[in-house]
Uracil-DNA glycosylase
Amino acid sequence: MSGPFAKALADFRARQTGPDAWTALPFFTDGSADLVAARVDAVTATGAHVLPPPEAVFNSLALTPLDKVKVVILGQDPYPTPGDAHGLAFSYRGSRRLPASLRTILAEMAEDLGEPMPKSGDLTKWAKQGVLLLNTALTVEAGKAGAHLKLGWSALVDQAVSAVSERQPAVVFLLWGGSARKHAAQVDQTKHLVIETGHPSPLNRLRDFRGTRPFSRANEWLAARGLMPVDWRLA
C-alpha cells in the first residue's frame, strides 16, 4: 500500500495534463519521482514528522504552470517548523515573526518599490502570477533543516530550470545565494534575464542582497518585452 506522499504524487499527476505539464519532465516519467516519494514515505513510516503536509508538497508546480512562468526564485528546503511551510520557497504561513530570510526579502521589496513592509509572509499571490517558487528539496523533517536534500529532489529543480529556459520566451531568474546561482549555467541568457545576488539570509557575511533592487529590475525587464509585471505587494 502506498504512503501519503506517493498518494500526493499520484494526485498531482492526475491534475497535470498536456505536453507542457510539469509531469512531462523526466523526473516524473522515469521513476525518479516515485523513488523519492517512496523514500519520503519510508521516513514517515519511522515516525518522523515530514513537512509540508503531503497535499502541499507540489504547490509550487501546481500554482505556477510551466507555460505561465515569468520569474523563477529558488530556495533550499521547506521551513522545518510545523505549520510554517506550504510548498512554496520562502513562503511562510506561521503565526510567529517572519523568518529572517523572508523578512530581508520583503524589506528589500518594500524599499525597492516604495511600498509598506508586508505583514503577511504568504507568497501565494506571487505564485499565481507566474513566479515559480521552487525549493531544491520539496520536503524536510520537523526540526531538521536540510534533512531531505539528498533524497533525490534536486533532479526536479535541474529539469525545471532547464525546461523553463528552453520553452519560455522571456523569464527573469532571481538567483539568490550560492546554491541558486549554480543554476545560472542552465539558463539561455540570450533570451532570459538572470539577476544573481547574495543570499538574503542574515548569515550572509557579505550582505550583498539588500540594495540590489531585484523586484523593480525584473518588472522593468518584463514590461520592456510587453509582459505583465508582477504585483509584488502582499495583502
Notes: The longest strand covers residues 71-75. The radius of gyration is 17 Å. The chain is about 35% helix and 10% strand. Strands lie at 50-51, 71-75, 131-135, 140-141, 172-176, 193-197.
